[in-house]
Design a protein that fits this description.
With 415 residues, the chain is α+β, with helices and mostly antiparallel strands. It has 15 helices and 16 strands.
Length: 415
């Protein structure tokens, strides 16, 4: 067996495996707050006729190569090749990679935190494939591929759902016959947990406050969007549910819709359950309502050019965000801090402005100049002394995974 010696200073490879894609980052972790991103990249169209690998060494131009990549094991081998390359590589041996962290979509009720991957953890991740068929199988492929390519290396699984495991039963249960929860574990799980946790902790550090002392609402807004209520440092409710389909309108996902309407359309159109699921997940949201695009940037351009359906989508997104902020403020009996993050939250100034103009009742004193001045950076969007502080913060889910990987894998020695 290969020898991997782990210290608290380590190079961590973070992998995010999709069904036909693989995102990666290699970070040199010296401590939780002292780290360097060495390289990152993306492999697309895995298993198709021609795949695309895009690799970027920090500080250098991106390198793009097209080649057939049959599966995730081959994809990870290709990633190793680029990391070792004499021109754009950043390591001289794969032995420099001391641990691998994986983003895993669904941990069900098994996992309340990130874990070292062993046979038991792998079995439980596999058990969750039934309730996350689009994500967990791909995550498992990445774990198993690394185990083959780097036998003995510590692997850590970080779950999108674990941060939300603190929700009370009255928040996570649906009003369905209880037997469906008992038999199938049908309940709200929530997603984007690593992002919600990261930006909440980051904001508290910037403000010099303890997360446990604040009532926080985090808005992760992008192609997939979710909003979370955080009280006493814990997630107490979140907008996504049994799957990432529930909640706000999103790029191609419908968000909340009356199940009766779903059954009605399915019957009228003669669709199977699988076909209806595709409509709700792939053909709805921004794309379905606008008929233009699933990208908020395209809709903003179209709205500026006078397209009424694009304007409608943006109004609906803002309306959904305001509804959740209002609801979670009521649930927590107030709010101290509202955070915008994700591609839309970090960069769409007009969306932040429209939402915050409706939050005067919470004591939000919006700073229009700060909002218009900044995009894609960490910034406070309210005036000094505001009762409720609003911030726009960049998220970094890969860093959360790398931190957890260093914490859990530190000190392990495999000889």
């Amino acid at each position: 067996m290969s020898c991997f010696i782990i210290s608290m200073k380590m190079k961590v490879l973070v992998l995010n495996c999709g069904s036909s894609s693989l995102k990666y980052q290699l970070l040199d972790m010296r401590s939780e707050d002292d780290y360097e991103l060495k390289a990152k990249g993306l492999v697309e169209r895995i298993g198709m006729d021609m795949s695309v690998l895009t690799h970027r060494k920090t500080g250098a131009d991106k390198y793009v190569v097209e080649m057939p990549i049959t599966d995730h094991k081959v994809a990870i081998s290709c990633v190793f090749k680029e990391l070792l390359d004499g021109n754009h590589g950043v390591i001289s041996s794969v032995k420099e990679i001391e641990a691998v962290g994986h983003r895993v979509a669904h941990g069900g009720e098994f996992f309340t935190d990130s874990v070292l991957v062993d046979a038991d953890a792998e079995k439980k991740i596999e058990a969750c494939c039934e309730i996350a068929p689009l994500h967990n199988p791909a995550n498992l492929l990445g774990i198993r591929a690394v185990a083959e390519l780097l036998p003995g290396i510590p692997q850590v699984a970080a779950f999108d759902t674990s941060f939300h495991s603190t929700m009370p039963d009255y928040a996570y249960l649906y009003a369905l016959p209880y037997e469906y929860y008992e038999k199938y574990k049908v309940r709200r799980y929530g997603f984007h947990g690593t992002s919600h946790k990261y930006v909440a902790e980051k904001a508290c550090r910037m403000l010099g406050r303890r997360m446990e002392d604040l009532k926080i609402i985090t808005c992760h807004l992008g192609n997939g969007s979710s909003i979370t209520a955080i009280q006493n440092g814990k997630s107490i409710d979140t907008s996504m549910g049994f799957t990432p389909l529930e909640g706000l309108i999103m790029g191609t996902r419908s968000g909340n819709v009356d199940p009766g309407a779903v059954a009605y359309i399915q019957e009228k159109e003669g669709m199977t359950a699988s076909e209806m699921n595709t409509v709700l997940n792939k053909k709805s949201g921004f794309l379905g309502l606008s008929g233009i695009s699933s990208d908020c940037r395209d809709l903003t351009d179209a709205a500026d050019a006078g397209n009424e359906r694009a304007k409608l989508v943006l109004k609906k997104l803002a309306y959904d965000i305001m509804k959740y902020i209002g609801a979670y403020s009521a649930v927590m009996d107030g709010v101290d801090l509202v955070i915008f993050t994700g591609g839309i939250g970090e960069n769409n100034r007009s969306m932040r402005r429209v939402v915050c103009e409706h939050l005067d009742f919470l004591g939000v004193e919006f700073d229009y100049e700060a909002n218009d001045r900044v995009s894609g950076e960490d910034v406070i969007l309210t005036k000094p002394g505001a009762k409720t502080v609003v911030m726009a913060l960049t998220t970094n889910e890969e860093l959360v995974i790398a931190r957890d990987t260093m914490r859990l894998a530190g000190g392990i020695k495999n000889n």
